[in-house]
Amino acid sequence: MKPAIKALLLDMDGVLYHGEKAIPEALEFMLRVGDMPHAFITNNPILPPASVADRLEGMGFKRPDEQRIITSAEATAIWLAKQKTDFRYFAVGAEGLHLALSERGQEDRQQADFVVVGEGPGIDFESITTGTNLILKQGARLVSTNPDHSVDAHHEGSHRVLPGGGALVAPFAVATGIQPVIIGKPQPLLYEMAAERIGASMAGCLMIGDRPDTDIAGAARLGMKTALVRTGRFARGTPYPVELPSPDWDIDSLSALSQIIF
Ligand SMILES: [Mg+2]
Fold first, then answer.
1. How many domains does the chain have?
2. Is residue 64 part of a domain?
3. Is residue 58 part of a domain?
């Protein structure tokens, strides 16, 4: 009997592609998904949803509706607006973060309510100093888009490890002695927003990801079904961490998952 899965939440990097290249099984898998309710959720706050959609299309996937793409930057902006309408922020990170925040709040380096740290360029001595002073003197809250210690980057065939959101927020946390509010996976917000957007219940959702500590752990704690694909960070043969919730399916590629759920 096929499991009762009504909707899919998909991580992207390491699940659908590596760098600029689609994983071939993922192209086939997404064809099978077709019109089934699904959303893409990513801890990566660097690119805005429109650019993510362009990238997917460029790799050979059907261009997804931008509403189906939820980045940690979008989720952060929505969360901040819930805390305070017309919030003021000081943000450190790449374009996607600045764009998402500017749609709902106002940048203010003097009177920010929130110091928001994402990923990518932007962090330097000056920005750490500005953020630290806003937190210690103005009572601004420290917010991190995602907790990843490091992330993979692929460019023209070469692979590099880049510092992730968790690493980039660390100088602010150390300088102030204040721990950040963390938005991305494994925290519930991204999953909840995605499920709500596609009208799915937690129990009817299957989360597909490549990281046990973020993708799988967060979804399992919310009562979602989970599938770990070993095409990304967590390679075949690596023992699953015993302290984390086990995935419902631990598979080598998306074609194996296709056979299970379709
Ligand atoms: Mg991933």
1. 2
2. no
3. no
Cα(87) to centroid(ligand 1), Å: 30
Q: Is 11 known to be catalytic?
A: yes
Buried b vs exposed e over 69-86: b needs ≥16 C-beta within 10 Å?
bbbbbbbbbbbbeeeeee
Q: Does 13 participate in catalysis according to the annotation?
A: yes
Residues with Cβ–ion distance below 5 A, ligand 1:
11, 13-14, 210, 232
Q: What is the pLDDT of residues 174-223, one digit of tens each?
A: 999 999 999 999 999 999 999 999 999 999 999 999 999 999 999 999 99
pTM (2 d.p.): 0.92
Integer Cα distance of 42 and 196 in angstroms? 16
Give distance in angstroms: CA of 211 to centre of ligand 1.
Answer: 6
Phi, psi of 226 (to 5 degrees): -135, 145
Q: Is residue 166 part of a domain?
A: yes
